[in-house]
Amino acid sequence: xxxxxxxxxxxxxxxxxxxxxxxxxxxxxxxxxxxxxxxxxxxxxxxxxxxxxxxxxxxxxxxxxxxxxxxxxxxxxxxxxxxxxxxxxxxxxxxxxxxxxxxxxxxxxxxxxxxxxxxxxxxxxxxxxxxxxxxxxxxxxxxxxxxxxxxxxxxxxxxxxxxxxxxxxxxxxxxxxxxxxxxxxxxxxxxxxxx
Length: 195
Hints:
The protein is of the alpha+beta class. It is built from 4 helices and 6 strands; from the N terminus they run ααααββββββ. Among the domains are: 50 residues; 59 residues, Roll (Nucleotide Exchange Factor Grpe, Chain A, domain 2). It starts with a helix and ends in a 12-residue tail after the last strand.
């Protein structure tokens, strides 16, 4: 036999002659390891059940919350409408008075009272008009409709308010539509048609 074959057969013999591992040589006895494995499985099963229970509770919470939100959205305007119904009744009475020949002053006073009542209802809900005339133009509050030359006011000052601006609970819900001053000389032709 050559040396290569001899070495190969010796390696095979060494592999087959390894000593078997006895249970007494293990770090832990079989009974204790089995108990620990069973305890770990039981704990894992308990944790899994708790996880499934929490997931189901969360799904139920999510469904309840979504249903409550939908219900709130459906009924969100109910209280406002209930508050506006007396204003609508006042308009009906005003129209009836006008059709029966009420004087102009009575109709004008009725309109003023209804407007005040409507403003009060909306103010209770957080609506507030803001003043713009005399203030510096601000794109966060104003929409400029027109610029007019002015030598009396600094440029970009609100000269006229065409439509009031409103905020609802500190949020601008409608920008004021305004006329803004411009520099008196800006964009105007030079005298005698010279540019």
